[in-house]
Amino acid sequence: NLPEIDSNYLSMILLSILMLPHPVKASSSESPSRLVVIMFVRELASRLPSPTPVVACTVQLGFCRSNLFRGLDGKWYARTFVSLASVLFSARTSEQGSRTLVHAAVGEDELAMHGRYLSSCQVTEEDDYIFTPEGKAFSGRLWV
Question: What is the DSSP string of 102-134?
Answer without folding.
Answer: HHHHH-S-HHHHTT-EEETTEEEPPPGGGGSHH
